[in-house]
Prior knowledge:
Elements: H1 13-21, H2 24-27, H3 31-47, H4 53-71, H5 84-96, H6 109-145, E1 150-155, E2 158-164, H7 165-190, E3 192-193, H8 209-215, E4 220-221, H9 225-230, H10 233-259, E5 267-268, H11 287-311, H12 325-348, E6 350-351, H13 353-362, H14 367-376, H15 381-398, H16 407-413, H17 421-425, H18 427-432, H19 442-467
Helix pairs in contact: 3-4, 3-6, 3-8, 4-5, 6-7, 6-12, 6-19, 7-10, 7-19, 10-11, 10-12, 11-12, 14-15
Amino acid sequence: MKKLWGGRFAASADSFAEEFGASIHFDKRLAPFDIQGSIAHATMLGSTGIISAAEAQQIVSGLARVRERLERSEIEFRVSDEDIHMNIERYLTEEIGPVAGKLHTARSRNDQVATDFHLFMRNAVIESVEALRELQQGLLEQAEKGRGVIMPGYTHLQRAQPVYFSHHLLAYAQMFERDINRAQDLWRRTNILPLGAGAIAGTTFPIDRDQVASLLHFDGVYENSMDAVSDRDFVLEYLSLASICMMHLSRLCEEIIIWTTGEFGYIELDDSLSTGSSMMPQKKNADFAELVRGKTGRVYGSLMGLLTTMKGLPLTYNKDMQEDKEGAFDAVDTVLGSLTVVTAMVRTWRVRPDVMRSSAEGGFTNATDAADYLAKKGLPFRDAHEVVGKLVRYCVEGKRALLDLSLDEFKGYSPLFEPDVFTALKLENVVDRRNSRGGTGSNSITRQIDIVRGFVKASGGWLSERRKSL
Ligand code: ARG
C-alpha cells in the first residue's frame, strides 16, 4: 500500500530501508580480508572435526575460487546481500552449493567483521610505516645534499638564529620517526584475533582460536569475547596517529607554501608538482602542499567522528559500529596519498642557498652571539642583552647589519668588544659553534644524520619481519 509519506521517497519503503542499512558500498573493500579470514576459520572447523575434512576442503577451495573471480573483477556486489560477509557467502554458495552454509558455524558477523577490520588495519599500519620511511629517506637525502646551506631559523615566524637547512629538515625526520613509532606500537593491539568470540559470548563448539590466529599470523587472541566484538580502539588509535601525522605533514606543507612565495623564494617546486592559474600567466602555485594541509581537516574529522560514534555504545556490537569504516578507509587513503606527494615534493624541490643565506644575514640572527660574546668576557648576560639590543637599534636606524659596523662603533657600546668580534659574528661560525647535543653545528648534523640513517635501517628490519604476517 502506498505510504502517506511515500512521495518523499524514490524507492519503496522496504528497498529504501535495505539501501540505508547496507554497508556493501564501502565494506566491499574488505573482500580479500573476509576471504582470508574465512579460509582460516574453515580450515580450523575441519581440523577440529566440527565439520568434516572434506567439507572444509570444499569450502576452502570454493573461497579460493571466489577470490580468483574477485581478482578478475567478475564479482558483482548486491545491496540485497547487505554487506561484504553475506555477499561473499552467496558467491561461495554459487560455487559449492549448500555446504557453504557450514562456513558460518561457530561464527557471527560480529567477530567476522572485527577480524576483517583487524586484517585491513594491520595492512594499513605496514603501508603507513613504509610511506613514512620513504619520506624520512627523502628528508635524509636533502639534509645530506644541503649540508652547509645556512637559513634563518624562526620563532614567531620572525628570524631568530641561523641554522643549517639540514637541521630544519632533520627536525621533520624526527617527527616522522615518532609517527613510525606510534604505528609500530599500534601493531601490538592490531595484530590480535577477535574471531571465536561468536556474537558476544563465545561458542559451544570446540573451536581452536590459537590455530586460527596462527593461520592468520596474528600474535595473539582477544581474551574476552565481549571485548573482542566491541573493541574499535585499534581503529581510533590509527586515526589518532594518522591525525598527528597529517598535522606534521601540514606543518611541512605550510613551510613549503611560505618558502615558495616570491617574498621568501627559499625553494622552488618541481613543475610536475605545482600548478598554474587559468587567468594569471605568471602563477606557479604549491597546490599539492595546500591540498595536504586541507585534507588534514578531514582526517581529524574521521577521528572525532568515530570517537563520537563509540562514546555512548553499550557492550557489545551495535549497528552504529558499521559507521567505523568509511572514515578509517578515507584516512588511510589520505595519509598514504599525502605522504607520497610530500615525499615527491621534498625529493625534487630546488633549493636556493643564496636566498636563504642573505635572509639569515639580514635579520640580526647573530645578535644572540654578540650577547654571548660579551657574556663570555664576563658581562652578566642580562647586561650583554641590553648592550646588543641598543646596537641592533642603532643598526636598524642606519639600515645596516651588525657585521657592517666598525670596531670603534662596537666599542662605543662596550669596551669589551675586540677585533675577534667579527669572526664571532660570521654566520658560518655562529651556526657551526652550536655543537651541543641536538644543536645545529656541523658535528651535531653529522651525528643526527647517522641517527636518522639508523631509524631508516631499523624500520626496514621491522617491516620485513612484519610483512611475513600479511
Ligand atoms: N556490516 C556490519 C558492520 O559493518 C557487519 C556486522 C553485522 N552484525 C550484525 N549483528 N548486524 O558492522
